[in-house]
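Trying the structure run again after the queue cleared.
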Amino acid sequence: MPLSPFQQAISANKFNNVHTHLAQLNELAQQKRVTLEWRSSNIGPAFSPVWQVYPVVNGEVWANYAQTAPNVQEASRRSADEVRV
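Done. Tokens:
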């Protein structure tokens, strides 16, 4: 399956170690005029939830980049790290 224009932009982008991949992907999406959102959901008891986050690009769910963590921030970071790889 061919890469989408945004996936091509991600592959061509030089990511740095100063900012998180999450911040850099959000910035790249703005530059390329791509709608990028990070959808989240949680499971488990309220006192110990497990968060799952995955990107949605121009309305297309990128479920293969879904990641889980004890909080939404970490799950978002992990998902962005996977997109970047």
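The chain has one domain: 5-84. Worth checking whether this holds up in the mutant runs.
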